[in-house]
Amino acid sequence: MxxxxxxxxFLSRNKMFTTINxxxxxxxxxxxxxIADMVTRQLTVDRDVRDAxxxxxxxxxxxxxxHYNLGQRFQDRFPEIEDWCAFAKCAELECNLEDMQTIVAxxxxxxxxFFDFFxxxxxxxxxxxxxxxxxxxxxxRSGAIKFFGTEKVVGKMLNxxxxxxxxxxxxxxxxxxxxxxxxxxxxxIEAFVPIEQVVNYDSSMDVxxxxxxxxxxxxxxxxxxxxxxxxxxxxxxxxxxxxxxxPYIYGVVxxxxxxxxxxxxxxxxxxxxxxxxxxxxxxxKVLAFLAAGIIILLMSVFNYISMSAAQxxxxxxxxxxRRLLGSYRGDVFWRMILEALFLTIIAFLIxxxxxxxxxxxxxxxxxxxxxxxxxxxxLTSICWLVFLILLSFFAGLVPASILSNYNPLDVVKGTFRxxxxxxxxxxxxxxxxxxxxxxxxxxxYFxxxxxxxxxxxxxxxxxxxxxxxxxxxxxxxxxxxxxxxxxPYVKNVSFTSGTPIYGxxxxxxxxxxxxxxxxxxxRIFEVDSAFFKVFNIKILEDCxxxxxxxSYYMSESTMERYKRFNLGIDRFRYAGGSVDIAGVxxxxxLESVLMDNMFANILIRVxxxxxxxxxxxxxxxxxxxxxxxxxxxxxxxxxIVKPIGFESIWYSDMMLDQxxxxxxxxxxxxxxxxxxxxxxxxxxxAMNIYMISQRKRDIAVRRVFGATAKNEQIxxxxxxxxxxAFSLVVALPLLWIGFKMINDLISYGDIPTWWIPIVAFAIxxxxxxxxVYLIGRKAANExxxxxxxxx
Amino acid sequence: xxxxxNLSKVFRTTEVETIAxxxxxxxxxxxxxxxxxxxxxxxxxxxxxxxxxLDNPTSGYYYLNGKEVGNLKEKDRTNVxxxxxxxxxxxxxxIDELNVSENVELPLTYLHIPAKERKERVSEILARMNIxxxxxxxxxxxxxxxxxxxxxARAVVSNPELILADxxxxxxxxxxxxxxxxxxxxxxxDGTTIVxxxxxxxxxxxxxxxxxxxxxxxVSSIAEM
Lengths: 791, 225
Known about the structure:
heterodimer; A: alpha+beta; 17% strand; globular; B: alpha/beta; 33% helix
């Protein structure tokens, strides 16, 4: 350590340099650690699943459909299938504990061979028998601790209630398994029960239903032999499905796509209409984060090089003197590399700490689980160490080369010159500015697109609508409604099954025209008349029927499509029956403008407000003290309905939730851009400090011969402007790629982009010139003789 | 032309106070050639810097052409200096990134002289200094003597009435040193006042008067015959 005394003295004497260098590098490491953990996790989803490369999911190619009963039929037709498994749903059940406390249990309904099939780690129990009986329950480690406070729970009993049907059952814990982490299955599952139990949660999901009416009640997984490609059998599977599965029989669906479990995570086949939404991620996003991580890394390295090179002049004399006194050029070189390693490790440790602190926020915006420190293994630790050594080597290379090349003779002769070449620094600066311009441009473009999406016309309005899920009996809900309606700030209360965000119930209907029978998919809402007022959906044509309960209002576009069948516009005629058409309402957007709606046909059945059993209660509130209003209505709901762990939610928040992915992405992009701007600025400061330290004598000479401080500042700024102008060469191709990636993520909205690079360029110019101005001001105003004297 | 009265310059740090010039009074007439001599640290360069309006005295008065300039602000000092005072340094102080022509042209650009006239004046002065053939060369391509000739060209291109030279031959061999001194002598003969700091008795001999400094004070002022 004594050997590095001069370095430590140098660092302590140059606190500004040390702080900027370490802080810049540490912030970069924070981003890199978070991104590395995120990318590693994304690229290793379900890597611990046994035989995952042989497990394929049945999908239609457009969505994940399926029914439990299809599994056996598949295996009967294709005996090469080694085994199959089904995942129905992950639901919030209510768990009654021994102390009479009731808590929520995140419970998955799975086929009995789930753990044997996927090979997830078992702490205690037998994979083959753990779910063999209907009343068996398997707890995850965190579930066991949550319910019983210990992992030793095998044999204990657990009472679960199904809130949707008000049924309950007592289950025996047969096994404890590790928490399922980094998987396509939902996070936070605490308990697994046999799939046969799902009927108690949702009667339409009965696994014994031979007709398989709920065609999306289970997600099916099939295990094939090694080197077997089930995609070659898709036509045969299609034939099978056309024989036995009604969506294919009626032509609602006519495709099959078998997707490998690993590929599903990044596939474009969603689980929108499946019984459960499995986790998926956009590979473009992973690439974008990876690219951002690499950019930040490069910038931080550039920054470090610039900063270190900027300081070489202050240590050049020491190095030249060392060489004069007998040190070899190589000694000086490696000394500099070791110094770089020391600083890099310090910055890395601070970055690690910062990453841990910011991890919860990063998880929120990235929408993925992270565990920066927990995910360290021996292998990753060695990788990081090698990475740090390499980074230090490259970061220390430039200053090491400069300093080790100083000639000791110059010290002897007193002709020691501090000037070094600036070409590489200018190149680094150009690259850094280019990257910053590209990131700012992408950030602006994404923000503008997001704004367009968030303000896109939906065909309906939602002011201050508070939503309550059905957590009680009809009588309780009706009492709640009558009490809420008495509140002066409540405009309307609506009982509804279906909202524009969640859509109505999906239903396939056969329409028999004179020539043929066509299968059409409809979204059917059941609402009371207040529904239209709550959302300001306009009834454009109203037949004013007396019996609305047996009729449908149609959206404009639904009516237009129905007209093409030439079945008249007085009644909605489908195979097996017909109902009156009550009128036409304006089209509205289902879900969000980012979604490609499969079910564009919308039918609304208006029921008597006392006869409707709602999925949701909507309370439309006047503007005012909304927080207070919400608290009062929540209290009313709690007192009357007595739900467990309920939470009311503003419709506007539900709408934002639809855009959560892109909003979070925007937050990340902004964070990256700010980081890039800061790192770039640090680099720029380094560059300017260096440039000015190199030019102090020139500035002094010019001042002696009549230049004013202003003349010199303008000259320095002009020099900086040249670099930024060149940086456009780097920026333009990068931002073109960035814009293309953004368009892939948000296809909605066509906005002109020509102005965005100009604004980004202007931001970088202003920041750069300001930096040059502030740093250059001191040098330009210094007494010139001081700087001539030091030469 | 130059009159200084009771001029002192003190450099202070947190621990040390150094008196570089101690109550110096001096007069230099128009078209005079004055050499300032003395051992290292006696205050020669400090005096030259103050005369060149590169630094302000701590106390005392400095009259340049009858006007008190000792306590001007930096901007005003620059305005007075610009075009009126030329400098020649021991280490030349040419700008490495500019070629010979551009280095010589530099003072003229700050006087806002039109480009055409600048070009003419630079050509003329380079010819006078006998380095026209090196006009497009960069300083590092020139010998020490040539660099100092360029530095002198830069100092006189704006036709200043005063040239301050700080050991102009210090980095030159005797042949080049002689040439430089001859150039300064010629300039003085043509009417330019010259104040030169030197360690060389030989170079000092070119002056009309030699001022000796010791510990920040003038110990003698001897006119050469």
